[in-house]
Write the structure tokens for this entry.
Amino acid sequence: MVTTILGRKLGMTQVWSEDDKLVPVTVIEAGPCVVTQVKTEKRDGYRAVQLGFGEIKEKKVNKPMAGHFAKSKVDPKAHLAEVRLDEGDEFKVGDTITVEALSEAKLVHITGTSKGKGFAGVMKRHGFSGGPGGHGSHFHRAPGSVGMAATPSRVLKGIRLPGHMGSDTVTTRNLEVVKVDLEQNLLLVKGAVPGAKGGLLTIRTA
């Protein structure tokens, strides 16, 4: 079985649990994904399938990818991802993988791109405490000393400084699966997942 599927974050809501507790959940449109390519041990050195997810207009597909989809005889897809296969798993081009692949999962790992927050200082980006709040301090939100004087006369690599914040690949692990809706291809997981509404997610069983 393929234990990884692509999805799209729809947003957050809340549902009642069986013991009458209000549970915050993220609603994910998980699949359906189409197999656009099959890689074999003999030809490629390993076993995997390439999954396509999301609709895209044909005019927005460049010529190399249009040829790839034409060869596979599948409609163009907006996103592609490769998933390794275990021994005994057999798929062919054109097969469809739905959220049913995760119906038995209790916990999942979800990977997405975090929200971009632009350029940020050290207090927001790294949680620095900053300086005194008094007007005469002249040291409020600056990072402070970052290097040595004479030796080695440079700033060492890895120092936490201001810079671009967000837009990183983030994985949230061991999220509890609350509900799987096979009819609407929806997956409800407890808590928040990385990224904004509409963002691409990779969901795999824990």
Observations:
- The longest helix spans residues 63-72.
